[in-house]
Amino acid sequence: MDQKTHDKGLEIRKAVLGEAYVNNALKSADSFNKPFQELVTEYCWGAVWGREELPRKTRSMLNLAMIPILNRPHELKAHIKGALTNGVSRDEIREIFMQVSIYAGIPAGVDSFRIAREVFAELDKG
């Protein structure tokens, strides 16, 4: 493991998804999935999200387009919150999910809109 890339990834991961979310993922890691958590932190968040060629907002928007296609609602919820943190507006999220609906199918759009509304309601409550 490259410690520098891992540390950069951990910083970005916490900045995007929130410190509590990441700490919970790491705290619940055991001997079975700890290597996976390290891989995600180093490669996904450090090696890719840590690149300078795309801003975090753009990376978040790409994730909001891809994750519904992969039918990963838990990840979508986390990345909607992260996208808002990265400056993606609710209007932009709506437009991304409109695009997903047309190119990936209405069921993917239905789930995406439902999950986004749940996230927005949760955030609006406080």
UniProtKB/TrEMBL annotation:
Residues 36-118 form the Carboxymuconolactone decarboxylase-like domain. GO terms for molecular function: peroxiredoxin activity. PANTHER family: 4-CARBOXYMUCONOLACTONE DECARBOXYLASE FAMILY PROTEIN, CARBOXYMUCONOLACTONE DECARBOXYLASE-LIKE DOMAIN-CONTAINING PROTEIN. This is 4-carboxymuconolactone decarboxylase. Pfam families: CMD (PF02627). Coiled coil: none annotated. SUPFAM superfamilies: AhpD-like.
